[in-house]
Amino acid sequence: MSALRSFLDRVEPLFKKGGRFERFYPLYEAVDTIAYSPGEVTRVAPHVRDGIDLKRVMIYVWLATFPAIAVGCWNVGYQANNALIALGQTQIAGWRGALLHLFGVGIDPTSIWDCFWHGFWYWLPIYAVTFVVGGFWEVLFATVRRHEINEGFFVTSILFSLTLPPTVPLWQVALGISFGTVIGKEIFGGTGKNFLNPALTGRAFLYFAYPAQQTGDTIWTAVDGFTGATTLGIAKLGGIEAVRETGLTWMHTFIGIEQGSIGEVSALAILIGGAFLMLTGVASWRIVAGMVLGAIVTALLFNLFGSDKNPMSSFPWYWHLTVGGFAFGAMFMATDPVSAAHTDTGRWIFGAFCGVMTVLVRVLNPAFPESVMLAILLGNIVAPLIDYAVIKANVARRARRLAAT
User: Fold this and answer.
1) Which domain holds residue 36?
2) Collapsing DSSP states into helix, strand and coil, what is residue 104?
3) Are both 106 and 204 inside the same structural domain?
4) What are the phi and psi torsion angles at 228 (to 5°)?
5) Among 292, 324, 348, 366, which one is most buried in terms of CB atoms within 10 A?
6) Residue 240: is its pLDDT beyond 80?
7) Sites of the modification FMN phosphoryl threonine (predicted)?
8) Averaged over 277-298, what is the pLDDT?
9) What is the count of structural domains for the chain?
């Protein structure tokens, strides 16, 4: 690392003001701060010394996604290998098959090794396209504005890739992350100034622009000629009974053995990563708790007063928490510190709002069963209003208390 430090120090003048590559200083600064902590210190008060900075927060979130990635890749491979066997095929087609064969990976659905690597080679190209295309926009805007390249995109890129189905065309991945990065964040000034979650903004764009690949009703298994709907896609047509007829149990959805987006299938893996974020203070437990309580109460009310003509009205509350993107949305998307509410009371209200809206849309508008992203984006829009109302109420309460004394 000392050689790298020497090299960076030697070329630094070229990127400083007046240097040959002055306009590319944000790119140099990004490389330098990835490997080393910034050397700048405050010269005037106030002085703050804290081990938690933006870089560490982003690294924590990035690491917290690893359990969901591991189980998600395994599940993609497991579903694909089962489908291959059902179709009577003995090998994987295309470049993935050649690559897996080269390393001795088979199609045994009972082999964790075979399933994980089969699924991994579906997720990795999605993440690579997300990172390269989204990173291009980050560097472009930072260079033009002469701002530093923010680490926030590391989180946006990995979260966006995990919300997609394994069969999504890569050109759609590029379009989605471009929309989320440019429209959802950069046009508002970049990281910290966006009022919408950029990963969800890109996902919502794909959801409405290309519904055939995103709604959960078509091909989600990574095998040509094999169709399989998500749990919510089945439930919206026949309710919980239709889901159970497929052989799926609640434990399947909790562990992550079902059709779905790569990183959203395993509530257990998401809970492990989310617990880490809440224990480190990166994610607000109030938002998560509020969202879960809001969903439970709304689902119970529908169970109590629901209509026999609407199969989703009888969908049990504990299924709502594990199917679709609810768990992933609650732990990783709703807790975005930029686009969520910032007051403690506001976080409870914001979380409850997202939970209520998720179940409300799932039940009353089954055309959009994957309603978590819509609920959170709507919550992002009203979050400033929630904080404003909470602050105004606190001010009014304090004024009354002072008047009483």
Assistant:
1) 2-49
2) coil
3) yes
4) -165, 125
5) 324
6) yes
7) 230
8) 96
9) 2
